[in-house]
Design goal:
The structure is a single chain. With 273 residues, the protein is of the alpha/beta class. The chain is built from 11 helices and 7 strands.
Length: 273
């Protein structure tokens, strides 16, 4: 790993440790102008999450403190989860998406959350205990090098995390390794629709705020195809520019990035001929 890439990773880890600590105290984390969605006002967090595509029922079905308003969409909207499936959540944070997935896969299924920030991991494990989620576990690890065995997952979900990685090609290749044959990706993330100015790309705050690290759509398609994925589908959501504008008011970042749903499938090895 280059020194520059390691610096990005360390900055992101430090920033999201501050998010977790801010969430525990009800303080503002400072990673972005909206306080990263962290608030001690339940109404504010509800507004953020419903804006991203979650229902109020979703918010009522997770332990208090799991919803930190950190995503850019709802990956479960495209996941089509089934009872008994094994789900891996990349960058699981406080466990919000992991807990919602756990309810869908049921006791016969399993959800494995991966996060590289010990403070987030501690928060998620505490939330799992509060909510009596016996089919969820959280593991410390980097999404480029997942602490998960080969051919484990039926589906990998992620919410606004892969953009933070300085080595996205490794994220997709390791996701491919972890998925079973026929397994699928269901990701909500920020993608670039135009080349971002260098001053934006090099801004640590915009990087930790899920904007500066976004890759162009064609670059993501190439990385996923080279990892071995098929049926790749990236659907930008232009309406997301409105809430992205709120992440960095006055910077014009919404002219370069949008939220998108990202789907792909690992071939099942069967021959159709």
């Amino acid at each position: 790993m280059s020194v520059e890439a390691d610096g990005v990773r360390q900055h992101v880890r430090k920033s999201y440790a501050e998010v977790a600590q801010a969430s525990d105290s009800g303080a503002c984390c400072g990673v972005e102008s909206s306080c990263c969605g962290v608030s001690d006002d339940t109404a504010i967090n509800t507004l953020i999450s419903t804006r991203l595509g979650y229902s109020e029922d979703d918010l009522c079905n997770v332990p208090e403190g799991a919803d930190m308003g950190l995503g850019c969409g709802n990956p479960r909207a495209i996941a089509s989860l089934k009872a008994g499936e094994v789900v891996v959540d990349l960058g699981s944070g406080g466990g919000f998406d992991a807990f919602l997935a756990a309810r869908e896969v049921g006791e016969s299924g399993q959800v494995i959350g991966i996060d590289m920030t010990p403070a987030m991991l501690s928060k998620a494990r505490g939330n799992a205990e509060k909510g009596n989620f016996n089919n969820v576990e959280f593991r410390l690890g980097e999404i480029e090098h997942l602490p998960v065995a080969d051919n484990t997952a039926d589906i990998i979900i992620s919410n606004c995390v892969i953009n933070l990685s300085p080595h996205k090609e490794l994220v997709f290749s390791d996701a491919f390794r972890v998925l079973k044959a026929g397994g699928r990706l269901a990701i909500s993330d920020v993608v670039a629709t135009a080349e971002m100015p260098e001053e934006m790309k090099n801004d640590p705050m915009l990087h930790a705020g899920c904007m500066a690290g976004a890759s162009l759509i064609n670059e993501l398609e190439t990385m996923m195809a080279e990892a071995g994925f098929e049926s790749i589908r990236i659907v930008p959501k232009d309406a997301s520019r409105e809430f992205i504008r709120d992440w960095a008011p006055g910077r014009g970042v919404e002219d370069y990035v949008v939220s998108a749903y990202i789907e792909a499938v690992k071939p099942d090895g069967t021959c159709c001929c």
